[in-house]
Structure formats: C-alpha cells, structure tokens
Design goal:
By secondary structure, the chain is mainly α. The protein has a domain of 135 residues. Helix 1 packs across helix 2 and helix 3 packs antiparallel against helix 4. Helices cover 57% and strands 0% of the residues. The protein contains 8 helices and no strands. The chain is elongated. The protein starts with 14 loop residues before the first helix and ends in a 38-residue tail after the last helix.
C-alpha cells in the first residue's frame, strides 16, 4: 500500500529504487520498501550507537529503540499501515539483536556494568563514562586512523609438573660421603700366624 499524500513514511523515497526488485519478487513496492527500508534504518541506528557507545549503554539504546518502535507500531493510534510496517521492521531488528547477543557482547556488558558501578562508588565519573562511551582513540581505531593498541607482554608459563616439583616439600636426602683416595678399613687386627704345634716326639739336630 503506497503512502497517500500527506501521510508520513520513512521509506517512500525508496520506491523508485526498489520498484524493479519488488516486481521481480511479486511483492508490492510499498511492502518491499517498508521491509527493506525498515531493516536499513535499524542497521544504521545500530551502527551509530556502536560508533559512540559500548557496554550496557549500547544494549540499552538497542532495547529502547526496538521497544519504542514496535510499541508505537502496534498500539499507536491513527498511524498509516505503511508506517506501521516500517516501524515493525525497525523495532524487531533492534529487539532481536538485544535478546540474541554475541558472546563477546555479553563479556563487554558484564565488564562495563562492574566497571561503571565501581567507578561511581569511587566518585570517578571520568572512569565511569569511559566504560559506556567510546574515547576519541577508540573511534580513530574503528575508522582505521590509528594503529591498534599493542598487546600486553606475554608471561612465561611454568609447566604444571615443574611447578608441582617446585612447590612440593623437599625431603632431605642423606648425605653420602665420598671415599677418599686412601681408605683405612677398621676391624679386627690381623692375627699372627699360629705357631706350629709340637708333636710328641721332636728330632733336634
């Protein structure tokens, strides 16, 4: 359903561009533009939020944008049908990104929550804002205008077996004295040779 004169639409300007593809797909150009245009606006809003924000504030913006767009499309009064379709495409895109984050997003949100709370408790508002807003250096790196930060120096890891040997208590070993070049053997003194036993008869010369 094309937008009527005087009706507000955020994707009507795409109709001439997408008319060929809508005909090939067998879909009305207004519906085609509403779906593609709504998704495109959602991606643009998401990219803009990612450019300036991070952590829990980034996810909060996505949830708020998706919730407001979807809620206005469903429960708004006097809204044209085409605008409802556009807002639904935008809102569902943002909500799905919020409920299905990447593992890296979850880790970043956790770090930003704890970092923000710790900085606020210390009264360091500069550190608190740095957990949810991107610094000029981060923006420059995202644009490729600055080199990435150098990785931290690698720490040398001790093998587990070697570490266990180092930490285990050492049992003192008995010291064995090495024998010198000359050794003196102790023991019973050699006995003198036994005297010959005299017989009963002895011949003397």
């Amino acid at each position: 359903m094309a937008a009527k004169p005087g009706e507000f639409s955020i994707t009507a300007w795409l109709d001439p561009v997408l008319e060929y593809f809508a005909k090939e797909a067998g879909i009305g150009v207004a519906d085609y533009s509403a779906q593609v245009g709504g998704e495109g606006f959602a991606v643009g809003l998401e990219a803009l939020a990612d450019f300036f924000t991070k952590g829990w504030l980034n996810k909060l913006i996505q949830m708020a944008a998706g919730g407001v767009s979807t809620g206005y499309a469903v429960w708004g009064k006097g809204i044209p049908v085409r605008l409802r379709k556009e807002l639904l495409a935008l809102g569902t895109h943002e909500l799905f990104r919020f409920v299905d984050p990447k593992p890296a997003d979850i880790e970043e949100v956790h770090r930003s929550i704890y970092g923000f709370a710790d900085a606020v408790a210390r009264g360091d508002w500069t550190a608190a804002l740095s957990t949810i807003l991107r610094s000029p250096d981060e923006i420059a790196r995202m644009l490729g205008m600055a080199p990435p930060p150098s990785p931290p120096p690698a720490t040398q890891r001790t093998p587990i077996r070697q570490a266990a040997r180092q930490t285990a208590p050492q049992t003192p070993q008995p010291q064995v004295r090495e024998a010198g070049k000359y050794q003196v053997k102790t023991g019973a003194a050699p006995s003198a040779p036994a005297a010959p036993t005299r017989g009963r008869y002895q011949v003397t010369g």
